[in-house]
């Protein structure tokens, strides 16, 4: 890929995402990007101080894109808060599969350790929205025995763990040709099953009505 003319910053981010998707974060270097784009070795430094600076920018972009992706999916699920939260979990894992560069960059420990204010803000907005969605699902009957924070962390640990497993070549080789979507659906039903929650929530009321009849 050779860069000709235009927005070098955008070209660097796009090529960096492609390299990370193919080789992981460890395969990325500013010098390598410059060589692939056909610009001087010093050219990337006009936009990014170093590799971590580029990764932070890509991670921030990833958090913002993830937020739009997951909440678009949850909005399509309708107004039910149980379906809304379940859709958020499904969408997170699917996003990690469809956008591996964003996922790997956002989870990289060096990027997290050196997060700037923009990255912290992008992550914070997602966490606040997720906490609100968790609280709404609890009001509808899900995990009412836990605090909203604990319930959110439980769900987040499950979806992040599943995403990590699906990015693990050793795990993928072990489970064979299983359909990832079927696996995501099955695991997410263990985390939050809207139909089961609704049935459990309405069961006592239904039993009482039957007894009165």
From TrEMBL:
Signal peptide extent: none
Keyword Transcription regulation on entry: yes
Every HTH tetR-type domain range: 6-66
PROSITE patterns named in the record: HTH_TETR_2
DNA-binding region: 29-48
Pfam families: TetR_C_33, TetR_N
Keywords: DNA-binding, Transcription, Transcription regulation
InterPro entries: Homeodomain-like_sf, HTH-type_TetR-like_transc_reg, HTH_TetR, MT1864/Rv1816-like_C, Tet_transcr_reg_TetR-rel_C_sf
Domain of life where this protein originates: Bacteria
PANTHER family the UniProt entry points to: HTH-TYPE TRANSCRIPTIONAL REGULATOR RUTR, TETR-FAMILY REGULATORY PROTEIN
Record's protein name: TetR/AcrR family transcriptional regulator
Species per Swiss-Prot/TrEMBL record: Camelimonas fluminis
């Amino acid at each position: 890929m050779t860069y000709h003319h235009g927005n070098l910053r955008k070209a660097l981010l796009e090529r960096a995402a492609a390299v990370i998707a193919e080789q992981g974060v460890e395969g990325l270097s500013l010098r390598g990007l410059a060589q692939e784009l056909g610009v001087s070795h010093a050219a990337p430094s006009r936009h990014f101080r170093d590799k971590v600076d580029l990764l932070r920018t890509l991670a921030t972009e990833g958090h913002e894109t993830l937020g739009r992706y997951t909440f678009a999916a949850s909005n399509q699920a309708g107004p039910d808060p149980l379906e809304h939260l379940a859709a958020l979990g499904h969408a997170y894992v699917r996003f990690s599969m469809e956008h591996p560069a964003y996922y790997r960059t956002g989870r990289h420990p060096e990027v997290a350790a050196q997060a700037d204010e923009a990255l912290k803000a992008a992550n914070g907005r997602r966490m606040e929205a997720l906490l609100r969605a968790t609280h709404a699902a609890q009001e509808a009957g899900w995990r009412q025995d836990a605090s909203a924070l604990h319930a959110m962390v439980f769900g987040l640990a499950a979806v992040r763990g599943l995403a990590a497993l699906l990015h693990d070549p050793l795990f993928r080789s072990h489970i064979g040709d299983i359909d990832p979507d079927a696996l995501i659906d099955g695991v997410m039903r263990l985390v939050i099953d809207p139909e089961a929650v609704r049935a459990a929530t309405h069961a006592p009321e239904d039993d009482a009505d039957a007894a009165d009849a």
